[in-house]
């Protein structure tokens, strides 16, 4: 489904989004003369458009998938309470709702929404601008997978700086028998008992996980777009398919790092006691050793099913919402600039 212009503002028919007046078919392509070349839309889209579309994508992605995220956090527990042992995502959700209340899987969603909006706004704005700049350098305005991977990795630095404190709070609230009943009480307790560094204890691990995750994610997404949507038109189905598959592949590959991040965030007391660790666990290397000590190699893949089930629709939602709002906002801006 490509953007077409008609009726009011039809003088812009055939014009590319970057203002180029060449027709969209270049080189014998099959596009109609009246179709807009969506691949060039990011070139003219403002940073405000990228940030607004990114914020909407992040909020919707994390809100819709939050119950599954709650299950993933619990399934990654290294030594779960006997009452909180689950064999499947669906079974876990049923058990949590039945034994802890209907709203229990959503506890902590407010702090996640507050973090996801600004984090994803900076994330997509940085990615789009870095991707365009690096593609110019590496591939002479072509699509370089290296450029996409580097752009995604750089965007992750900004994203995680905002999201890491929110991740700490929401994961502590998601755990079974969590003493925290509200996000504010959790923030106060962590601040008072562990200090500011507690909110960034897993930051290096988060980056170590998310930089390869996002590199794999963006490279796979852009590659799949080339296969299923070669003209790069606004095509919701292609964004959903490419986003979902890219998220699933990246999630499975980086599950060991996610398990270590969860341990650092939650400071799971029973697990640390069994590993004869007193005080706080810090550092990715220590987390890796602790996971192996308690559960061996299978411990690194605890919750992999829940992680893939969570990430696949999450990235599908994120990309489809982001591309829609980018399309909608840019089209709206173009319409308002087009004379009658």
TrEMBL record:
Record's keyword annotation contains Transferase: no
Reaction catalyzed: Fe(2+)(in) = Fe(2+)(out)
Presence of the UniProt keyword Membrane in the record: yes
PROSITE patterns cross-referenced by the UniProt entry: SOLCAR (PS50920)
Principal location class: mitochondrion
Domain of life of the organism encoding this protein: Eukaryota
Location in or out of the cell: Mitochondrion membrane
Stored InterPro entries: MCP_dom_sf (IPR023395), MCP_transmembrane (IPR018108)
UniProt membrane topology term: Multi-pass membrane protein
Region (Disordered): 1-41
A UniProt-annotated Pfam family: Mito_carr
Placement of Solcar repeats on the sequence: 45-133, 143-227, 234-328
Cited function: Mitochondrial iron transporter that specifically mediates iron uptake in developing erythroid cells, thereby playing an essential role in heme biosynthesis.
Protein name stated in the entry: Mitoferrin-1
């Amino acid at each position: 489904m490509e953007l077409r212009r008609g009726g009011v503002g039809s003088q812009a028919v055939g014009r590319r989004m970057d203002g180029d007046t060449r027709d969209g078919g270049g080189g014998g392509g099959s596009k109609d003369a009246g179709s807009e070349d969506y691949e060039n839309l990011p070139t003219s889209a403002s940073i405000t458009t990228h940030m607004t579309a990114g914020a909407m994508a992040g909020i919707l992605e994390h809100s819709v998938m939050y119950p599954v995220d709650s299950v993933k956090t619990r399934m990654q527990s290294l030594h779960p309470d006997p009452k909180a042992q689950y064999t499947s995502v669906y079974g876990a959700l049923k058990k949590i709702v039945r034994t802890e209340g209907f709203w229990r899987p959503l506890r902590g969603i407010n702090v996640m929404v507050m973090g996801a909006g600004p984090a994803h706004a900076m994330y997509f704005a940085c990615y789009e601008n870095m991707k365009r700049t690096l593609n110019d350098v590496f591939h002479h305005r072509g699509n370089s997978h290296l450029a996409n991977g580097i752009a995604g990795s750089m965007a992750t630095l900004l994203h995680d700086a905002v999201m890491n404190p929110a991740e700490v709070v929401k994961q502590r609230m998601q755990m079974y028998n969590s003493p925290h009943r509200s996000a504010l009480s959790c923030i106060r307790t962590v601040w008072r008992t562990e200090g500011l560094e507690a909110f960034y204890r897993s930051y290096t691990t988060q980056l170590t996980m998310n930089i390869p995750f996002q590199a794999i994610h963006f490279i796979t997404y852009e590659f799949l777009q080339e296969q299923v949507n070669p003209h790069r038109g606004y095509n919701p189905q292609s964004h959903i398919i490419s986003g979902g598959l890219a998220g699933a592949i990246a999630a499975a590959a980086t599950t060991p790092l996610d398990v270590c991040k969860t341990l650092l965030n939650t400071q799971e007391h029973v697990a640390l006691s069994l590993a004869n660790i007193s005080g706080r666990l810090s550092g990715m290397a220590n987390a890796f050793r602790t996971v192996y000590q308690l559960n061996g190699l299978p411990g690194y893949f605890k919750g992999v099913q829940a992680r893939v089930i969570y990430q696949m629709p999450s990235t599908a939602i994120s990309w489809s919402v982001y591309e829609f709002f980018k399309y909608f906002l840019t089209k709206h801006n173009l319409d308002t600039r087009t004379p009658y």
